[in-house]
Design a protein that fits this description.
A: 615 residues, mainly alpha, Cytochrome C Oxidase, Chain A, 2 strands, B: 361 residues, Immunoglobulin-like, four-stranded mixed sheet, 9 strands, elongated, binds protoporphyrin IX containing FE, binds copper (II) ion
Amino acid sequence: MSVTEELSHHDDHHEEHHEQGFIAKYIFSTDHKVIAKQFLITGIIWALLGGALSVIFRLQLGFPDLNLEFLRPLLGKWISSNGKLDSEFFLALVTMHGTIMVFFVLTAGLSGTFSNFLIPLQIGARDMASGFMNMLSYWFFFLSSVIMFVSLFIETGPAGGGWTIYPPLSVLPQAIQGSGLGMTLWLVAMVFFIASTLLGGINYVTTVINMRTEGMTFSRMPLTIWSFFITAIIGILSFPVLVAAALLLVFDRSFGTSFYLSEIFIGGEALPNMGGSPILFQHLFWFLGHPEVYIVLLPALGITSEIISTNSRKPIFGYTAMILSMVAIAFLSFIVWAHHMFVSGLNPFLGSIFMFLTLIIAVPSAVKSFNYLTTLWKGNIVFTPAMLFSIGLVSFFISGGLTGIFLGNSALDINLHDTYFVVAHFHLVMGSAAFFGLLAGVYHWFPKMFGRMMDTKLGYLHFWLTFVGVYLVFFPLHYIGIAGFPRRYYSFTNFDAFSTFTDLNTFVSIAAIVTFGAQFIFLFNFFYSMFAGRKAPLNPWKSNTLEWTTPRVPGHGNWPGAIPKVYRWPYDYSKPGAEDDFIPQTVPYSQTTSSNFPHENELAKSEGAEEGGAH
Amino acid sequence: MLNLVVVLAVVLIIAILIALFRVSTLVGIVKGDTQRQVPSGNKVQAFLLIVFMVVGLGAFFYYSFGGLNDDYVQPLASEHGVITDRLFWITMAITGSVFVVTQIFLFGFSYKYQHSENRKAFYFPHNNKLELFWTGVPAIVLALLILSGWRAWVDITGEAPEDAEVIEVVGYQYAWSVRYGGSDKKLGDYDYKKIDATNQLGIDFSDKDAFDDFIPRELHVPKGKPVLLQIRARDVIHSVFIPHFRLQMNAVPGMPTRFWFVPTKSTEDMREETGNPDFNYELVCNKICGKGHFAMKYTIVVDEPADYEAWYNSQDPWLKQNADYLSEVPQNLQEAAQIAAKLDDRSEPSSIDGIAVSSTK
Ligand code: HEM
Ligand SMILES: [Cu+2]
Ligand SMILES: [Cu+2]
């Protein structure tokens, strides 16, 4: 206790001493809240860009005969003289879309925003363990963003071998132009990106372990924090492997090594490389790549847990089970990677092993879904936009999760691998679910971020257009995928087998454009409310967690006085016998005798003792 | 035209939005929304959720059971495909039911338990029995699915039968080539360093098995007989994907892969079945490989076994068509090569020697 107090005193003074200038306050800030907003806004810009790229390639897929001349001002020589999109640039678009969405939007944009914003606020800390590292984390991300962005505009185009950058395609500029400078920039950008993620991750883990306020035991931590904590650990363990994979790729590209190359004849000549294995890269890549999908997803699930519980006015069902299933998912996510490689030429025996492991991971995921449903059951549900997005997330998580059971079954994956079925699967379970988690989080914590409320009606409109839109875009892709349509195809006209579904593809593209358009409602709401929204009450959602005990716009150090103490878990909603339908974490059991359970009455006694001792 | 529609749509949407926004803000302030904890639209949202569920599930059933203009299941033509398709539909039945039930719970609960002033939520933090139940049931169901999937997988990826037709399939930017063993039914060695503009597959003519190998323009396979594809790639990764056979295997440079299967319907059978007189089996590239990835097609013909034999025997060895390459055959095998490549019955050996000498690359 005394330590906390000392710390808080120290920080209080700190706050009074410096009135920071604009640059220190908003640009090179070490305040976790500012850094979070920096991540958020950068993430939003990336999301728009990534979405715009998908709209361009959806135009190609949905309207193959369309004259794209109107894109020439934007794309220049990538539009041919007869108004067609270049088929190589199509691949570059797909690649950059995937890279941007997975890494820049849903890793940096999601974890970067909410881990930074919520960890100190919800565990009761003044800031991150290292504010400086935290700032560095953002600026590495920024640098990475700039490099990746620049790569879009170079002569030979950005990387084009898919976001999975499988060699030899990603090594050989003879094979695809994007593997020249574009790929180099991609790799450089990703190295900075990984540095950023690691700096952030180490900070999150350290902060959660060391800086919880008094009484905030692990078993009283909100599920958001649990999810950020676990996510950060996954990131720390998996991203370095991507660095290793990328490093070997760099050697193969530039220094003539043969880690991934063997027996290649291209561009009229036989390359000297012998003995390498392209499959090795796939192993290394997916050792990151699969955990990565959980890095993307878990924070979204944490955010949803919090929002669903708050707005159902009910404790999250199975708090411990939720944590255990996240831990199980995190652990299993490291030993299922080869399910992406069932038809890569992998030893079939390994295929069997990975099929078993993969389908095991479905169990904790199922547990999470059922727990969400039970949390809603007999709730008293308030449909804030955040709540709607959370319900949408659960819907996507179920829809997309179920198709994973097909893909994880190696016998079925033979026919489904790399088809649109996969595209449908991961867009629902990872893309849309995590994206909805991000949006839910923004709607929910906007009042704490900017001290103002977003408009609810616009939030509803945004939700419905997006929710219906996402289903209209991605649900039909299942049918197209079952029919065997391959992904990363510029057009399907070359094959009789794929001469069908032209209408459906057009439909999907229209739905995608409308859905993309609907995001501007959000943008308007976001920026308008930031400056002109209604001033937020201190605890607009009547929530239990600590962040709502701060001032409307918390300053540097978060709490003007001492950091509040925590006495209970964060999910005491609608507790029988309680006056209100929520009891914040800062309310001691001794003040809630009417609603305490017997063991809590015991705790109430020791609370009193402690209190007495301290004074 | 489309541009115009898009632009108009965007403008319209924006206009509607702004109008809606202003009106609703004003109305909201008048009604005192700002003081309320439960948004005034709560009931409407609950209602919309249930409408969405009903319409969504309706559309799901309608389109899954024949409502689409096109058939989303490719006709099936391989033995193992029967097994994997059955497994696919069993999985679909299970996950489909779970999908419907859980979505009904999700939206149904949301509707039923929408906020009401005179009710308090049920404080229900956990229940070990329930949690054990829904950990256990998915675990058991998944275990059953895994087991059946695993058995299918082991059978499919197991060794090909002894008598399988062995065919080599090679992918390169942006085409396929296939090679047959010829009359000895043995594929000769290859070496990627021997690849040139003519010898696209890098056949190594120091191996006598290579002399009678032939490289046709289409991939022919016999109906009802096991076929083993030996797959490799020359430049980047490609993937041999044949949707009608439910067959896929990557073609990897430097690492040969394989897939065996039994085709069950001849091209003619399929033409009848689909009512499409132009039906052809197609080999599709399904691993991103560069700008021509979407056009890497190869035609496959499934023959009745007798037709297949006839076709097979009518094919000229590659060496016969490209007699220059005799020069790569070691001296002591020259004669064998000429016989195996059926070169002796076309022209005088001496003239072939002449060609061979004059055209060493
Ligand atoms: C406007 C919304 C979106 C649309 C219309 C869209 C559309 C598509 C399509 C059609 C593809 C497949 C292209 C192909 O394989 O030929 C694709 C690929 C991909 N998308 Fe999206 N997407 C959208 C949003 C997202 C989001 C939110 C994510 C976040 C995870 C995402 C992640 C990816 C990834 C990882 C790929 C794979 C890229 C690759 O194959 O290399 N997308 N997208
Ligand atoms: Cu995975
Ligand atoms: Cu390809």
